[in-house]
Amino acid sequence: MSSAHPPSPTENVATAPVVDACASCSVYRAANLKKLGVAMEDWDFVVALAGNPNTGKSTVFNALTGLRQHTGNWPGKTVARAEGGYAYGDHRFKLVDLPGTYSLLSTSLDEQIARDFILFGQPDVTVIVADATRLERNLNLVLQILEITDRAVVCLNLMDEARRHGITVDDRQLARDLGVPVVPASARFGRGLPELLQAINEVATGQVVCRPQRLETVPAAIRPALTAVVGELEAAYPNLPNPRWVALRLLSGDESMVDALRGGQLGTLHSLATTESNKE
Amino acid sequence: MPPSPSQPASQSDQILAAAKQWRQQIPGDLHEHVVEAIYGQAARIAERSVSSPSQAARPTFDRSLDHILTSKLWGFPIMILLFAVMFWITITGANIPSAWLSWLLIDQGHSWLRGIFQSVGSPEWLTGFVVDGMYLATAWVVSVMLPPMAIFFPLFTLLEDFGYLPRVAFNLDRLFKVSGGHGKQAMTTMMGFGCNAAGVVATRIIDSPRERLLAIITNNFALCNGRWPTQFLIATVFLGSLVPAVLAGLVAAAAVTSVAMLGVLLTFLVSWGLSRTLLKGEVSTFSLELPPYRPPRFWQTLYTSLIDRTLFVLWRAVVFALPAGAVIWLVANVYVGGESLAEHFIRVADPLGLFIGLNGVILLAYVIAIPANEIVIPTVLMLTVMTTGLQDVGAGTGVMFELQSGDAVGQLLTAGGWTTLTAVNLMLFSLLHNPCSTTIYTIYRETGSAKWTMVSTLLPLALGFVVCALTAWGWRLLSVAPG
């Protein structure tokens, strides 16, 4: 990038004047973002948008698709799935806005919708929108999602608010600890979205391989049960990408998981890396 | 390659059996173990990357504002006042554009369109059906609905973006707990103030099926988009006119506030009653997040609430007004045994209607307007013209005629036998009657139960009859006005 640019690319890339130096920067491709609204036939990749309530998922969704899902400053606003599309570079993406939830472990319908989509919908990338001002609580959901999928991007939203409150987040350290790309953003003001698009693209196309952090210490009380059921699952489904999560859901008697096992749906789940290599 | 999609049944059964067996051997609660582990790890990771100043992360402004807005003493008065102010702005602001729209679409537009139809030699029945039925119903809906919505929705959205709604939910939470409902019912009620169908879908955030049913059944007590304009119009025309012009707006706003509050009160009472009879059970706990106050982005909010919400709702109203207009024209112009269908119905329904302080016309209007509450007032006006025989006001039987202002609406309805009691009871009945067909269908889809759909549909209707009958009885007893 030329020296004429301000030091923080986050702030100005999207509006920077078109010069050659910019066009050669990968981040600049955000200018090629084409908002497709609901016209999203023939997508190349499916991207799920998950996160805690009131972290700005719908704002991110609107900014990328050009749709105008109603947004509001209160938790529990989106309860159903909304879908939209965008094109970035040479690829078309279908974006699915999931209901905001604090966890994926309970029985309420909104959590079930989010949980089942991330597991059975097998999105190519799951974007987890997290509130930078309440990172610890948001990480609870991030860690649960990383148990399910190995292709995720964390969008660290509301960075403007965090800054106002004097909070700083070391996004590189966070990315190292989580094993997935972390993109700081202020979606309300369009900041960080070019980088987010870039990160989604890289994970979707396999340019960046995630090594997600999975729960390092399994509580002693459930270790024997978990090990046993995981063993059974791995013997039956050697390609299952997330045997530990499936085992956990089976142990807690999750009905949609029991149905998936009975109906043979579980056998169709396998790590996306395998899918890609099978295609080629 | 993945294994074949369907494993032998025995294998999955074996896994399930193992899971079941192991589940019983886990000491304590599985859920708690997992949550604890996740929380621990989240805390460790957050500690490594987040640094914040030693003082509380939340600025003092937010906290002191919360202190006032959710205070036990001031929380409710401020809430009621805020809503009353919003209603007042809506009522006083909507008058002028309403009169202007009605001049444009009804006075000018209707005769212009009629002229065109006649000049191309259209038969009278076709002109009547299309111009006097479909066009006029739609024009009425636009002129009655658009101005209040264009003012009310942006105001409501600004309050929402600022972050006030979760505080309302916080204030109401204690009452919901007492009445046996889930605290999140406050959220779905807020959603219902926009649209009951959306409110019913929003109950998905409630875990317990019992509490979810409570929230679904009581959602109709939140006045929706389609009913606000009815409230605003009737309150302005009948109640505002009882006092000097200076106070008219205030009185009308107070009346609308009271009806909205009555809805909230009934939400509690009905939840309380149901959770002690049909829907007994424990109250579950939940945590409610009070998000930070955010300065609303004024112009963007204005734009999106106008484009998305106002025009969206208006479009829905128009879509329903077109066929409804046709139906209205037909029931007024299809004669059976010397009387039109509408006259038959009104003659039969009048005694019941008058007994509960309404009239047969209003009851018929509510039957025709089941698809959308938005078209109640236009339907009432048209039917009134027909039955009072005020042919010189309208352009003919079954025609929604031209009225220039709220005053003319008042004069016409008074000529149709309306009193202050009729107006008050119409406002009550608008709050308490069956949900629109869209909402009924949504309730069926969400509950999957015909029984609970029936309960949600008929309970408010029954309440409406009881409340209106009681009001009429008390009114006549006190003979506040000749009823």
From TrEMBL, chain A:
UniProt signal peptide: none
InterPro entries reported in the protein's UniProt record: FeoB_GTPase, G_FEOB_dom, GTP-bd, P-loop_NTPase
One protein family per Pfam: FeoB_N
Domain of life: Bacteria
Stretches assigned to the FeoB-type G domain: 44-206
GO cellular component, one term: plasma membrane
Single annotated GO MF: GTP binding
PANTHER family (UniProt xref): FE(2+) TRANSPORTER FEOB (PTHR43185:SF1), FERROUS IRON TRANSPORT PROTEIN B (PTHR43185)
Name recorded for this polypeptide: 50S ribosome-binding GTPase
Automatic annotation (TrEMBL), chain B:
Domain Nucleoside transporter/FeoB GTPase Gate residues, every copy: 143-232, 314-449
InterPro entries (alphabetical): Fe2_transport_prot_B_C (IPR011640), FeoB_GTPase (IPR050860), Gate_dom (IPR011642)
Keywords: Membrane, Transmembrane, Transmembrane helix
UniProt entry tagged with the keyword Acetylation: no
Membrane-spanning parts: 73-96, 134-159, 232-253, 259-279, 313-332, 352-372, 379-401, 413-432, 452-475
A GO term for molecular function: ferrous iron transmembrane transporter activity
Domain (Ferrous iron transport protein B C-terminal): residue spans on this chain: 257-305
GO CC terms: plasma membrane
Taxonomy, superkingdom: Bacteria
UniProt entry tagged with the keyword Translocase: no
The protein's name: Ferrous iron transport protein B
